[in-house]
Amino acid sequence: AIGDRLACIFVDNGLLRMNEVSLVETTFREHFKIDLTTVSAEDDFLGKLKGVIDPQEKRKIIGHTFIDSFKSAAKSVRNARFLAQGTLYPDVIESGKSLAGQAANIKLHHNVGGLPAELGFDLIEPLRDLFKDEVRRAGELLGLPEQLVWRHPFPGPGLAVRCIGEVTKERLDVLRKADNILLEEIVANDLYRKTAQTFAVLLPVKSVGVMGDGRTYDNVIALRSVDTSDFMTADWSRIPYEILATISNRIINEVRGVNRVVYDISSKPPATIEWE
């Protein structure tokens, strides 16, 4: 129904995973043949996040900066009136809103509670009342590629909420490399479809280690993997020890500045899937 009237704006906030920008561009331009404009806004986002450690404040800053970048780019699109978002029902619930009324505010989702009150667009959220498993069923019925339908969720604020503490380019680079190794091993061991969400977290602490004959004082990476269908409750994934050992060894040996890897065995509730 929309056809060539759809113009997509991709805001590269500098908070994405390794090679994600090129993946998004290739998917939209080559597979879907959609008009896509990429906005490079890394410096703007990281500048505004400098010194910020509170997770709710991170989400608000990212939401506001996203809309500013989006609105600026949208000026080049004639008669742009609508903003379409992929908000899901768990996002709505965790942001303190639900079909039953107010709920406990667990965390702001930048596409629910983190955006400015006046968007300047008419907001369209066709998936707002659906859970992740329902969205995937809809995607399959629509004939979307399997790798897109079953792709693990990624938070709107990106790696900013997996980089605990201050978000800097240097810390993000460490996290990206560790996260990429984790996903490589999960895919190689045929665990990607068997787990619901798997990712690395960079902790705001350092630990003492030994490399060769020398003492190190470097970063700690936490691994998080959960099994769930609706993402409202989740249990930690029982990844075999030998696979965890390989992941740990690769991260410590291949990612400069990391000397310790831990595995998160918390279920939801009481823990949320994301750390922030």
Task: Explain the overall architecture.
The chain is α/β, with parallel strands linked by helices and 276 residues long. The protein folds into 3 domains: 1-76, Rossmann fold (3-Layer(aba) Sandwich), CATH 3.40.50.620; 81-151, no CATH class; 169-263, 2-Layer Sandwich (GMP Synthetase, Chain A, domain 3). The chain has helices at residues 20-31, 42-49, 55-74, 89-94, 132-141, 146-149, 169-188, 241-254, and strands at residues 7-12, 35-40, 82-84, 97-98, 101-102, 122-124, 197-211, 214-227, 235-236, 258-263. The strands form 4 sheets. Strands 7, 8, 9 and 10 form a 4-stranded mixed β-sheet that branches. Strands 1-2 form a two-stranded parallel ribbon. Strand 7 and strand 8 form a beta hairpin. Helix 2 runs antiparallel to helix 3 (55-74) and helix 7 packs antiparallel against helix 8. The longest helix is centred in the N-terminal third of the chain and has 20 residues, at 55-74. The protein is globular. The model has no long low-confidence stretch (mean pLDDT 89).
Largest sheet: 4 strands, mixed
* Assembly state (oligomeric): single chain
Structural class given helices, strands, pairing? alpha/beta
Strand content: 15-25%
| CATH classification class of the largest domain | Alpha Beta
Mean pLDDT: 89
| Range of helix content | 25-40%
Identify the notable features of this structure and list them briefly.
Rossmann fold, 276 residues, GMP Synthetase, Chain A, domain 3, globular, 3 domains, 34% helix, alpha/beta, four-stranded mixed β-sheet, single chain
